[in-house]
Known about the structure:
Number of strands: 20
Number of domains: 2
Number of helices: 1
Helix content: under 10%
Mean pLDDT: 93
Amino acid sequence: MPIHYGVLKAKLVDRLRGTADNPHYQIHAMAEDVHYRIAVNVKSQLRPYDLLYCAIEHFAHEETQGLSGLPYGYTPLDSRPGGLALDYIRSNLFDPSSMVPLPFEQPGADNDLNEKMDYYLGKAAASPDAELYAFGDCWGPEDNVPDKVFGFRPGRGVHDIHMNQGNEGKFRKDDGVYQDGALLLRFPSENRWIGVFLAFQSQSWHTDDVTGHAIAGAPPGRPAGPKQPSAAGDKPDPQQPDRTPAAIYVAGAVVQPAETTGQESVTLVNAGDRTVDLDGWSLANKSKKKQRLSGTIEPGQFLTIGLVRSSGGQDFLANQGDLITLLDAAGLKVHGVSYTRSQVKPGWTVLF
């Protein structure tokens, strides 16, 4: 069954690096005099063992707008769109192609997960107003049982601070949508958020919208992000079908037209070398409202699509922040972006 999902808002107390015996980066945090341990996986139990890692030092997403008002402590979250729950695939939190595999420990400077976590948690330790937001699965309180790492009583905390869908084998039971883990750090005095995101290389990035299980037959790898041409000299096999993903991206959006009679729009770009048929494709927003697409887009060309208001006159995109996700004819994510309220200006195009 899916995990017991929520977010812990707390202050940093202490931290310990992951080891071969316990490959979790351990964080001791407190919220209103209650102790918690945040256990962050830094090594996979399945091959490949190195985790996928992405950190965004100036994390800007409409998701953060509702977080700062949460009380300190653990808040259960409904795993659904439109709330505070995170989904690496559906929330367009970051470009999945920017994730890199990192070992939890290896010789050298700034080249493993322990060191990356030290760097960002060190920033939180040096800032008196820093807040930690740990998304994941809660455990405890464990009555009369001390925490096995930091020794406080009763033991309690949050784990599964990573993507929680598209799993293999015995971990498939933990699959679900809108229940992905992450560590967000807020620095109010700097008006800044830092986001740290982790995933296992064995996980699928095309998952069922209900179960979170991997979709059979879906292309491997992570969607989104500019695809680079193959190395010089590499030539496709004419006897094999071309399975190269379509290189179509959301380039910009007019969210708030300058005039009341204006129309919202989304502009796509074809960065690839072949014409792409958009029949059956669609654009989706955060509330899962979709607009069907048609026609073709030529290599190197832009295509601007006027967005249709609902029958009740409601705009497709929200001025206070929203998501724009591009889906192919099979309903699989091709690209996704997000914007915040601060990026929206009348008549201006939000660039991605």
